[in-house]
Specification:
Blueprint lengths: L1 H29 L2 H16 L14 H15 L11 H5 L6 H17 L4 H11 L3 H4 L7
Helix pairs in contact: 2-3, 2-5, 5-6
Keywords: Heme, Iron, Metal-binding, Signal, Transport
GO molecular function: heme binding; metal ion binding; oxygen binding
Pfam family, one: Bac_globin
Length: about 140
């Protein structure tokens, strides 16, 4: 009887893992795969650079590289086949002094971009739920000079 319980536990674990992977893969698909993610990022960057709340944080940013890395990151976290080639988020953002208001402004801009592209609220919420935990690696006090 114990062996059947063990096998059942393994099968249930496998089913849960497969379901989680399928759910993530479906987010990638719901975002429009790489082409859709590319559109989201491109539209988001246009909005970032016009948003008075955050545009100054991008003054010295290599925008084409930022676009590439955001596309990779969105692809990876949504369950796509991409690899993220950027540096650690905490290391990259630590000296920039990005505050919570700027983080939320950027998140709002990503949602505006997705609205413009006709992405459903449910899909937007799934992506934002995966992006939100990054706040702890992005928001730091401004360095003292």
């Amino acid at each position: 009887m114990k062996i059947y319980s063990f096998i059942l536990a393994i099968l249930l674990s496998f089913n849960t893992a497969v379901h989680a992977q399928t759910g993530a893969a479906s987010l990638y698909q719901d975002l429009g795969n790489e082409a859709g993610i590319s559109k989201i990022v491109d539209e988001s960057i246009i909005i970032f650079l016009q948003d008075a709340r955050i545009k100054d944080t991008f003054k010295e940013t290599n925008i084409p590289r930022l676009a590439q890395l955001l596309k990779e990151q969105f692809c990876v976290i949504s369950g796509g086949p991409c690899k993220y080639s950027g540096d650690d988020m905490k290391v990259v953002h630590q000296g920039l002094g990005i505050n919570a208001a700027q983080f939320y402004a950027l998140a709002e801009d990503v949602q505006i971009a997705m609205d413009k592209l006709g992405i459903s609220s449910a899909t937007q919420n799934r992506l934002m739920a995966l992006l939100a935990p990054m706040k702890r690696d992005i928001v730091f006090p401004k360095p003292r000079t």
